[in-house]
Hints:
Structural class: alpha/beta
Shape: globular
Radius of gyration: 18 Å
Mean pLDDT: 85
Low-confidence stretches: none
Number of helices: 10
Largest sheet: 8 strands, mixed
Distance between the termini: 33 Å
Order of helices and strands: EHHHHHEHEEHEHEHHEE
Amino acid sequence: xxxxxxxxxxxxxxxxxxxxxxxxxxxxxxxxxxxxxxxxxxxxxxxxxxxxxxxxxxxxxxxxxxxxxxxxxxxxxxxxxxxxxxxxxxxxxxxxxxxxxxxxxxxxxxxxxxxxxxxxxxxxxxxxxxxxxxxxxxxxxxxxxxxxxxxxxxxxxxxxxxxxxxxxxxxxxxxxxxxxxxxxxxxxxxxxxxxxxxxxxxxxxxxxxxxxxxxxxxxxxxxxxxxxxxxxxxxxxxxxxx
Length: 242
């Protein structure tokens, strides 16, 4: 018998901010990396995206490039310590709505999967905290316990699509009865492929993607917390304290 799954993006969907950016800040706080690069190249772009005024792809290009360069040569002990601090101090900053949905899915014996563009070492810790079934994030490659600068991404829709195929085979998932929760363009394939797509505070780019695809727009549900957001599509829009 096939199983029902729920695929959750993390950044902006479960967690209110970005795990990667929070980790970046911790590395700066502990003087492991220089904050100059962050303030000169990435801070403004992140703030624009965080306010949903900027493009997510621009955010990824600026922040990820700087973040990856900053991590080159760092050992796992250092990265694990700062990652633990992120989870300890920041991991409860999640939407109440999304947290309740995770609980509902687990209570109903659904397969719950975190699928995120954030580094795998952060996604793994978040997955353990919320006791979900499985997870996948961007894979940061280490050689001799030192980050070598290679990243296998999980923030684009093509990568997430491949990951979903693997999870479907691994857990015998019925996508037509499954759920997906996302907020950016990188989540569009997750939303397209399931019978119950749900967008959480989506970017304008994601809204446009949903609106242009009849197979998604007719069934997609949009959950927002800010009443100033305007959506021009026929999907169900709920304004909640999420």
